[in-house]
Amino acid sequence: MKTNKSYTKRLRVTRKGKIIARKSGQNHFNAKESRKTKTVKRRSRVIEMKPKDRARFLAGSGA
């Protein structure tokens, strides 16, 4: 099965196998948001993923 490229571009896999992603909704329309909201959105988050889903979405990426 092919790797879902659009999905893998949003993710980073650490050495220990954790999957880290950016928070959603931070690309544009940020002018009216408060400073606190922007700061929170800059943080990455760890994604919990079942082994079956990991194999499906990250098949050829070495994850």
UniProtKB/TrEMBL annotation:
Query: Pfam families, per this entry?
Result: Ribosomal_L35p (PF01632)
Residues folding into a coiled coil are: none
Q: Which GO terms describe its cellular component?
A: ribonucleoprotein complex; ribosome
Query: Record's InterPro entries?
Result: Ribosomal_bL35-like, Ribosomal_bL35_sf
A single Gene Ontology biological process assigned to it is:
translation
- Family stated for the protein in its record: Belongs to the bacterial ribosomal protein bL35 family.
By what name is this protein known?
50S ribosomal protein L35
